[in-house]
């Protein structure tokens, strides 16, 4: 029986962090050959591939202004289009929309409606493209966003995407770095639940997060921070320090998490992604605050075995998977 071949198209950083060599050894014992794809060479000469696992975020973002990245992306897309039997983990259109927080926040808003009976929500938010301060203030009031506001870059990839800020008053809105998303901050007891999805399986890892802040506008200066540093497992930032009297919330219900992941998988048509959720300290509502493409899976010891199981399942059921829902079905959100 011929070996099944799985191509991996990852950045050097992602490949090392994942330890692809160790994963290839694991696959080899199950009759699966792992091939590292070089986009600088024609892919047809490196194939055939039964499955391709990729994270082309760098290439997709840079292709907007870099001709070499455009060439690399075209090389990849040409191979995929001429080899329809090759399964792609995950579809490029699905991944591309998650690189844009304007698009991913519309998805979160849509999930809020479909999971309302599960007490799942996403905070009110606003897409900002203008520097007109009066227009921004008017939109914040119209959308009934509450202070403090958390400000995130529109592009959800790269080191700059982790640069965020907390804005405490209308005057602080001038600190927003455009284009961006403004989102009502939700007090959550400085605990972030990172949900890592691998096919049918999911794993929830607890991480530090921002501490609670008084609700409502105040004259406090804008706080700039790096979300990656704040939410590292070993983080001890002053921004995550809680008062000892603050009650510790119970973790999210597993039934609710299963429903959330099931809905997201159907909506995105993806198998490798993460979702960041928090629990509102006042209402105990599960709140979705971000969706991530092919995350690092730090703290998930079962990642290799789960990924291998999903790849084997894909190979077994190839050609029988239904298409994902169309991204065009997303509701429109006003943009400033």
Automatic annotation (TrEMBL):
It is an enzyme of class 2 (transferase). Mg(2+) 2 binds at residues 290, 292. It holds the Pfam family Ins134_P3_kin. ATP binds at residues 101, 152, 183-194, 209. Belongs to the ITPK1 family. Binds 2 magnesium ions per subunit. The keyword Kinase applies. Keywords: ATP-binding, Isomerase, Kinase, Magnesium, Metal-binding, Nucleotide-binding, Transferase. Gene3D superfamilies: 3.30.1490.220, 3.40.50.11370. Monomer. GO terms for cellular component: cytoplasm. One of its GO terms (biological process) is inositol trisphosphate metabolic process. Kinase that can phosphorylate various inositol polyphosphate such as Ins(3,4,5,6)P4 or Ins(1,3,4)P3. It catalyses: 1D-myo-inositol 1,3,4-trisphosphate + 1D-myo-inositol 1,3,4,5,6-pentakisphosphate = 1D-myo-inositol 3,4,5,6-tetrakisphosphate + 1D-myo-inositol 1,3,4,5-tetrakisphosphate; 1D-myo-inositol 1,3,4-trisphosphate + ATP = 1D-myo-inositol 1,3,4,5-tetrakisphosphate + ADP + H(+); 1D-myo-inositol 1,3,4-trisphosphate + ATP = 1D-myo-inositol 1,3,4,6-tetrakisphosphate + ADP + H(+); 1D-myo-inositol 3,4,5,6-tetrakisphosphate + ATP = 1D-myo-inositol 1,3,4,5,6-pentakisphosphate + ADP + H(+). Mg(2+) 1 binds at residues 276, 290. This is Inositol-tetrakisphosphate 1-kinase. It comes from Megalops atlanticus. GO terms for molecular function: ATP binding; inositol-1,3,4-trisphosphate 5-kinase activity; inositol-1,3,4-trisphosphate 6-kinase activity; inositol-3,4,5,6-tetrakisphosphate 1-kinase activity; isomerase activity; magnesium ion binding. 1D-myo-inositol 1,3,4-trisphosphate binds at residues 14, 55, 162, 292, 296. The keyword 4Fe-4S does not apply. Its EC number is 2.7.1.134. Residues 112-322 form the ATP-grasp domain. Signal peptide: none annotated.
